[in-house]
Amino acid sequence: MDNTSLSRRNFLKTTGAAGAFLSLGFYMPASAKQAKIVTAAEADQFGVELNAWIHIDQSGKVTIFNHRAEMGQGSYQAVPQIVAEELEVNLADANIVSAKGNKEKYGSQITGGSSTVRGSYKNLLKLSATAREMLIQAAAAKWSVDKATCYAEGGKVFHKPSGRQMHYGELVEAASKLEPPKDVVLKKRADYKLIGKPLKRMDTHLKTNGTAVFGIDKMLPGMLYAAVERNPRMLGKVKSFDDSAALKVPGVKKVVKIKRGVFTAYREGVAVVADSTWAAIQGKKALKVQWDDSGFEHLDTEEIYKRQAKALDTQEGLPFKKQGDVDGILSKASKKIEATYETPYQYHACMEPLNCVAHYQGDKLQIWGPVQAPEWLQEYLSKEMGLDKKNVEVNMTFLGGGFGRKALMDYPHEAAEISKAMKTPIQVVWTREDDATQGPYRPGITYRCEGVVKDGGIDALKVKLAGQNIGHASGAPKDKPNGSASEGFLKPYAESIKNLAIMDVPFETPIPVIWWRSVYASTNGFAYESFLDELAAEAGKDPLDFRRAHLKEERLQKLIDKIESVSGWKKRKKGEGFGVAITECFDSTVAQVVKVSKAATGGVKIDKVWAVMDCGWYVNPDTIEAQVEGSIVMGLGAATMHEVKFKDGIPVDNNFSTYQMPRITDIPPIEVHIMDNDENAGGVGEPGLPPFAPALTNAIFDLTGKRIRKLPFNLAAV
């Protein structure tokens, strides 16, 4: 997992020390419309650093660089699996290295929006095929044969007529001198040997034998450890602190006031630095800090939702989408369906709490840690620490979960500030309580839905939502609607529902908010798909047939056929509750059916969940199944177990004792199916979450006749 520097100079040094090699990457000239595939020598000629995705040395060793963070979603597997397919190498023999943060070299390295595969697979396929063709061309030249009579397989090039073979290491010197071909023929999906296959993940053994390096595992010579006391109301300032007791704790070295940037604001805290994490935490407990909490409101959860309801009552909101005569139809309708839905604030609850190692060295800053957005971090820290961006080095370790929280820059900034103050490498480790109570959180949102049904279909639909806009924290215009107001709502509905309005009612609180797995789709999906079920009931239509009638696209029709078939939707029996929901985000669509029944101990129990994902072109079905299963488990917790509550501006639930997570005994059987087609790749890590909550509550209505419009709720109390 050590990062390898592939600068021009290091390439030249490697050449001199270890002989020839073949490294291929992309170079994007300023005036070019698309990237040019180049070798190391060409990169040196252009005067640029090579973003080498593929490196092959004379021994035949193949190194594949993963440009995205691995936080459980499978980039450590998916990127090499793509490369190895067209490169024709054995995946088990390849060395996989996490690339350092460098946007100029690798393009976007932000691990979010389920974008790793869908954002890079076409370029990676072409790059890998180019390397393969160059090696074949080099072999054909050595043998003085027609290139068409040669082929690559298993890290070797073969000559069909004679049976001669050479491994890649024997060809790299000659191949490195060739000009990369401009056009290569990619394999047809039917010819794939690796892509589309449920290969075992290559990081599993690292994570089970203890060799995987997570942020919390990183150690540097002379490193000290820090724990930080932060204001429980988050926005408060340090008025004063007494460190006398903390300094008496064995191992404690120093206590310093520090800051960290959270979007455009700064948060203050008091850091205790010691020779061990344990000593730092004990010193932190001994601190006495007085906070200045003036200048902002200290809200309770109940007050937040009262204000959201009032805002929906008194404000029309900013139009995200408006077509037809929605208001006219709603005002004149003899019968109008209305419903209000509430979704809670949520904590990310990563198994690995926030942590970071920083080494500030005057003109240089090095970062090691669980980082989702290295390019954002480089940009931010260069400004905050007064450094050239090239001198901010970001090293991505494995992440024990991220879900959007680890794309923020605050915790590395905090570590960098402490390292600067102490003039030594520092590791900051957040306790579970720190992690749970400092946010930022998924915003809680209230939705007001109105609709009119006519001739068995939707004549008019209006949705107003009041909740915090994540974009406002980073400076997005407040006179513009939330750009994610319809996230989760299938785009084809806008074609079949001629009278449609989606309105964003601006809403602010001092509580910091940020992305959470599937972002706004995780809350929007509950409101939109729950209300569609209510409209279907009003129309007297089967809920799945009702959706089918409004989703005309052939691709969606096939998805509906699949979920109907695998779930046995048309064979439902008395005493069984079935609910369906279909949502879309990050270019993937997921349909889920949940089956419930009455529990012997009271309430309802979940009997089974069926999920069908259409993510277009995909890499590893086993990874997809795991991600959908994980999304459903996370959705189950958010729908029925946990929420972030506030009292006097302070988060109430500070650990898993009160913010309870689903246990293995809570998880129903989950059956995942993947649609096969030739469409462009969509996301996988997040789209499986949004449909679960509405499918569950729709199933409960089917069983009991009771509508659940507020999350979370207790299954045992239904």
Automatic annotation (TrEMBL):
PROSITE patterns for the chain: TAT
Domain named Aldehyde oxidase/xanthine dehydrogenase a/b hammerhead: residues: 209-295
Gene3D superfamilies membership: Aldehyde oxidase/xanthine dehydrogenase, a/b hammerhead, Aldehyde oxidase/xanthine dehydrogenase, molybdopterin binding domain
Keywords: Signal
Keyword Signal: yes
Matching Pfam families: MoCoBD_1 (PF02738), MoCoBD_2 (PF20256), TAT_signal (PF10518)
Segments forming a coiled coil: none
GO molecular function, one term: oxidoreductase activity
Domain of life of the organism encoding this protein: Bacteria
Signal peptide per UniProt: 1-32
NCBIfam families, alphabetized: TAT_signal_seq
Name assigned to this protein: Xanthine dehydrogenase family protein molybdopterin-binding subunit
Native species: Dyadobacter luticola
